[in-house]
Amino acid sequence: MRTFKIKEISEIINGATPSTSNPLYWDGSIPWITPKDLTDFHNRYINSGHSFITEEGYKSCSTKMLPIGTILLSSRAPIGYLAIANKEMCTNQGFKSIICNSQYINNLYMFYWLSTKINYLQQISSGATFKELSKDNLENVEINLPTLAEQQHIVNTIGTIDDLIEKKQIEYNKKLKYLLFLLDKSESDKTNTFGYVFKSFNGGTFESKYYVTNSNKKLITIKNIDDSGFNTNNVSQLSEEKADNKYLLSIGDIVLTMTGNIGRSGIVDENNCYLNQRVLKITSDSSSYLFAYLHKYKKEIIQLGKGTAQLNLSLDDLKELKVFNSYNEITSFKKYDCLYSSLLNCKLVIKKAKQIKQLLLSKYF
Description:
Blueprint: E1 2-5, H1 6-9, E2 10-14, E3 26-33, E4 45-46, E5 51-53, H2 55-60, E6 71-75, E7 79-85, E8 90-91, E9 95-100, H3 107-115, H4 118-123, H5 135-139, E10 142-145, H6 148-186, E11 192-193, H7 194-197, E12 199-202, E13 211-212, E14 217-220, E15 225-226, E16 229-230, E17 236-238, E18 248-249, E19 254-257, E20 265-267, E21 273-275, E22 279-283, H8 287-296, H9 298-302, H10 315-319, E23 322-323, H11 327-332, H12 337-364
Parallel strand pairs: 3-8, 4-7, 14-21
Antiparallel strand pairs: 1-10, 2-9, 3-5, 6-7, 6-9, 11-23, 12-22, 13-17, 14-17, 15-16, 18-21, 19-20, 19-22
Helix pairs in contact: 6-8, 6-12, 8-12
Keywords: DNA-binding, Restriction system
Pfam family, one: Methylase_S
Family: Belongs to the type-I restriction system S methylase family.
């Protein structure tokens, strides 16, 4: 095991932004990545983001063309998003991109190592308005390297798990797309209301004084449902005596946010989860219909929100939202609930694989 500074085994590249007021610089063929492109990006490899620049735009600023295999590390707003360039691309100034010297380090090894050091990278960042990781600070971070053969073994071991995660995520996305197609195909001129065809259950009110650190009772709040769905990241834990089974969720339940980022839905994929206020559990005769409906009409649900500092969704308003099927048509959609079960299975496999991945990262790094 040898110790190196990152600058000794790689090259750090800054990004830049062409003038946004010149239309000749934009909508070209060169992928141009910003940290926003990685907000809900969970794969290792990235092909493009939302923006492309032209050759003129590229030449107009100091951004650099990054070769395939470059590690993209967001260095501000926020610090720590990671991806690997799967084709030539460039970035804005929100990245410190790392081109690894293959004589010393496998780029996937660097990628996995960095993923375990995000807190440290945030600690060595500075700034008044917002923190930024400087090129100098990153270059002087030290890393212990095993032999290239050992690096390859580690990369192969963790990579096998990542392959499974990405495969199951692709399967999930395809099946959800097909479910949305089936919903589009089934909708009719027989309208109903949300409150008539779906049942809603509000979460409980749990005071923070009953939060503990040694319980397996997880309190699901609005922070536990993001654009990717349900998660228990940074979940609060309830004391045993305050974990009311009236609010206990089951695996496969569908939940919806009612405050803040309203309209986000997810499938519960863990046991011992309890529903907090401003998170709604919704049930239907057909789980597949309900889940597809919440995805298709997310924008309409968001438009029901009221408030300036923070959006709030009224249950009464939600209940009046139109549903374009009769009750019987929704019930008949139950024949597609095998698709919903398959979506849930994908989530369960992904969750288990991520747990194994974390164990491996802890073991090797």
